[in-house]
Amino acid sequence: MISYVKGRVTTLDEGSVTIEINGMGYEVLCANPFHFQDNMNQEVKIHTYHYIREDNQTLYGFKKKEDKQLFAQLLNVSGIGPKGALAILGTVSVPEFVSAIEQEDDKYLTKFPGVGKKTARQMILDLKGKLVVWLPDEENENTLFYQEDLSSKEKKALLEDALEALKALGYTEKEVKLVRTELEKAKHGSVDDYVRQGLQLLMKS
């Protein structure tokens, strides 16, 4: 099994990132490949899940180890394949997803692409109690998703990068403008968090 890859980011597209290692390019499928946009031509380490079938071998990549671990857990749920698991991770943070599972919020879970009520209940049945290690401590909850010490200029730069990432994922200029106002009110500390909230808002619209 390939646990991670470490190499230079050479190309990005809507569904994958290519990492060059010793003259070979490895295509790694990601939920949001443009999270690596700032790492172009730089060396990065990507946690990978090596998905093996008789007629297919695919690398799925994640910035955080807990994202990879949740991806693996989702694959154990009946009705959830790699594409569905990746779509979930692309629209929600791990703690938010775990919170929905623990609260048995099937209405929230059915907002994900391809997840109906039956699959949502199956996720709750299979995963409840197994993911609580990723729930934040109450005293750290407010610092998990944003940082108060960012300047307005830094926050604006993060937001602009996130809006460009949404457009790169296939959303139109008009659709992105519809969620911009809500995102401007947020206090996130990373492009990833802005992209996740943007995707959640777009799913509701």
TrEMBL record:
Residues 153-205 are annotated as: Domain III. It comes from the Bacteria. InterPro entries: BlueCu_1_BS, DNA_helicase_Holl-junc_RuvA_I, Hlx-hairpin-Hlx_DNA-bd_motif, NA-bd_OB-fold, RuvA, RuvA_2-like, RuvA_C, RuvA_C_sf. It is found in: Cytoplasm. GO terms for cellular component: cytoplasm; Holliday junction helicase complex; Holliday junction resolvase complex. Keywords: ATP-binding, Copper, Cytoplasm, DNA damage, DNA recombination, DNA repair, DNA-binding, Helicase, Hydrolase, Metal-binding, Nucleotide-binding. GO terms for biological process: DNA recombination; DNA repair. It holds the Pfam family HHH_5. SMART domains: HhH1. GO terms for molecular function: ATP binding; four-way junction DNA binding; four-way junction helicase activity; metal ion binding. Residues 72-91, 107-126 form the Helix-hairpin-helix DNA-binding motif class domain. Belongs to the RuvA family. Has three domains with a flexible linker between the domains II and III and assumes an 'L' shape. Domain III is highly mobile and contacts RuvB. Homotetramer. Forms an RuvA(8)-RuvB(12)-Holliday junction (HJ) complex. HJ DNA is sandwiched between 2 RuvA tetramers; dsDNA enters through RuvA and exits via RuvB. An RuvB hexamer assembles on each DNA strand where it exits the tetramer. Each RuvB hexamer is contacted by two RuvA subunits (via domain III) on 2 adjacent RuvB subunits; this complex drives branch migration. In the full resolvosome a probable DNA-RuvA(4)-RuvB(12)-RuvC(2) complex forms which resolves the HJ. The RuvA-RuvB-RuvC complex processes Holliday junction (HJ) DNA during genetic recombination and DNA repair, while the RuvA-RuvB complex plays an important role in the rescue of blocked DNA replication forks via replication fork reversal (RFR). RuvA specifically binds to HJ cruciform DNA, conferring on it an open structure. The RuvB hexamer acts as an ATP-dependent pump, pulling dsDNA into and through the RuvAB complex. HJ branch migration allows RuvC to scan DNA until it finds its consensus sequence, where it cleaves and resolves the cruciform DNA. NCBIfam families: ruvA. This is Holliday junction branch migration complex subunit RuvA. It comes from Halobacillus dabanensis.
